[in-house]
Amino acid sequence: MMKLKFDFVSSAVLESKTRDKRINFILNKVKDGTILVTDGVMSPEEEMELIKETMRRVDEGFPGIEVASLKKPVSGIAKWIEKFSEQKDKVKIFFASLTGEKKVSKSWKTGLTLIGPAKYIKQVKKNPNSFSILTEVK
Amino acid sequence: MKFKFLDWIYRIFGLRRNIKIGIYGETGVGKTTLANRISLDWTGEEIGKVTGIPHETRAVQKKEKIEIKVNKKKILLSILDMPGLSTKVDYRSFLKYGLSKKEARERAREATEGVIEAIKWLSNVDAVLAVMDATRDPLTQVNITLLGNLEARKIPVIIVANKIDKKGAKPHLIKEAFPTYPVVEISALKGKNMDSLYEAIAKYARGG
Question: Lower CB density within 10 Å: C or N end of chain A?
Fold first, then answer.
């Protein structure tokens, strides 16, 4: 019987890497058959980059990934802090572009993300405040 | 909204800007059927082939300078029919449509390139029609990621709830899932409610 491996990785570990290294880290694990769970949510732009890089790596043994994420809803002062953080990111990205450093990305939001190999994750059912996954391992 | 200054210049000189509209969405939601419907309605010509096999559109298909008339106003559009967005492409899924292994592998390779191309085009469109199949669950990661990207890039978007002619279509679920976006319910195949879509394009594609 085949077994599924789950890796629970702190978002702090992922955020400490550059965007390219982070995507590489995620895809190396997932391509290896691991389901990765982390306590953060990447920006939509970074998720598109992840999809793009996944497509470059698709082969017969690796048909791609399944992603499910939940962003923690914020309100009041937390929302204000989030907006401030977004502005800070924009400034950071602007100055990085001046110095030619193109791979600086937006901070991750608080939440939950699961990324796994599509060959094992057969269905993702998302709701506004939860998600469930159905796996099949032959 | 994007290009507001350019719009202003164009209006002063009485010119009409060609608005590039990208048709985005998951595979099999009816993007090419919609592109064909828009093009047929205004030019009498189709843009692409519809076969029912996933990833039929594997490269961006364009129809440029389509002039549409809405409430006596003329709008110039370029329609860009994008390959379907997906997080996975498995060549084995094409075999059940009668393709040989070689053909299926080739289609899968082209499909992955198509997804990359569609994502790259996000920086070159003025507005997006995000097509969703009203018979499917709209709350998918691809739809959420697409809308998040458009919002971050400040690209105007209209959600098109397609296939409302089909039994089991639940376009209200799309409205409930994405309450902050304009949603137009249509059947691209039957040409149902297309006038509402053209009115929405006239309203939102210019940041109205």
Answer: N
